[in-house]
Hints:
Layout: H1 6-25, H2 30-37, H3 41-49, H4 56-65, H5 70-74, E1 86-88, E2 93-97, E3 105-111, E4 128-142, E5 145-149, E6 154-158, E7 163-178, H6 180-185
Antiparallel strand pairs: 1-2, 2-3, 3-7, 4-5, 4-6, 4-7
Helix pairs in contact: 2-3
Amino acid sequence: xxxxxxxxxxxxxxxxxxxxxxxxxxxxxxxxxxxxxxxxxxxxxxxxxxxxxxxxxxxxxxxxxxxxxxxxxxxxxxxxxxxxxxxxxxxxxxxxxxxxxxxxxxxxxxxxxxxxxxxxxxxxxxxxxxxxxxxxxxxxxxxxxxxxxxxxxxxxxxxxxxxxxxxxxxxxxxxxxxxxxxxxxxxxxxxx
Length: 192
């Protein structure tokens, strides 16, 4: 069981809120989550409402039923919610590491060059990328396709497809989210 100290009282409350929020996000009733976790509905209700002590074995069972890990369920609330960018002036990039998955990152990039005209300059690697155009127009070369992406439009694609991106009709600014594999596929970070 989680020992009850003043600091753990806040963590206890946070864990209970997480359980309820995850259940509600799935659209599950108390009865549905209780059945999935193989606990009684009244036990689950008392856990969520703070009327029952949190037992480690029940938390592990609830975490599995909620499709999360025990570590994520009991993670302490952190004060560092705001993430400052790491600036790479050489490549004109700002990168924000994503705490939830250290292998992921967010990159903001200003592009001035059109996409490469040679298919040999397109990259392919494991992973997924998600890009949103903040300003201007970008052109994504994806396999044999040429896709115009306007301001406020986004694209998501598997990076095993050969791809390259550039600006059309003047500079454009993009923001991209790269999973661990996609980030490794762009070691210099200067071309997407």
